[in-house]
């Protein structure tokens, strides 16, 4: 079995987020199909609840889209009431995919190119 390495999620996937009321929706799409099993193991609903803990989600649901090598996450009650109710500067969920993409995930080193591993170690 290959050793695990930590990389930021943005190296392995794209993401797109949106909002409806106080509900955040984030789609995560793997850059390569080979990344799907590793991300399936690490991007759990519980993990996302931890990443977004400061926003206090009341519920996180993960939907798997294996034929697209993607996931859809729905987080309830994280937008301070939504765009029309929040006093926050940005009550939208549009930018929150970047919070997720900055998170580090552990994946088998064999999935990554040797040149990338060398540059990460330097």
Placed side by side, the strands forming the largest sheet appear as: 2-3-5-4
Which stretches of 5+ consecutive residues score pLDDT under 50? none
Supply Rg. Answer: 15 Å
The topology string of helices and strands comes to EEEHHEEHEH
Helical content band: 10-25%
- Helix/strand/pairing category: alpha+beta
What is the C-level CATH assignment?
A: Alpha Beta
Q: Helix count? A: 4
The CATH architecture term is 2-Layer Sandwich
As for the CATH topology, it is Gyrase A, domain 2
Q: Can you tell me the number of structural domains?
A: 1
Shape: globular
As a percent range, the share of strand residues is 25-35%
Largest sheet: 4 strands, antiparallel
Mean pLDDT over the residues: 83
Structure characterization notes:
With 122 residues, the protein is α+β, with helices and mostly antiparallel strands. It has a single domain (4-121), classed as 2-Layer Sandwich (Gyrase A, domain 2). It contains four helices and six strands; from the N terminus they run E-E-E-H-H-E-E-H-E-H. It has a four-stranded antiparallel sheet with strand order 2-3-5-4. A two-stranded antiparallel ribbon has the order 1-6. The chain is globular and about 40 Å long. 21% of the residues are buried.
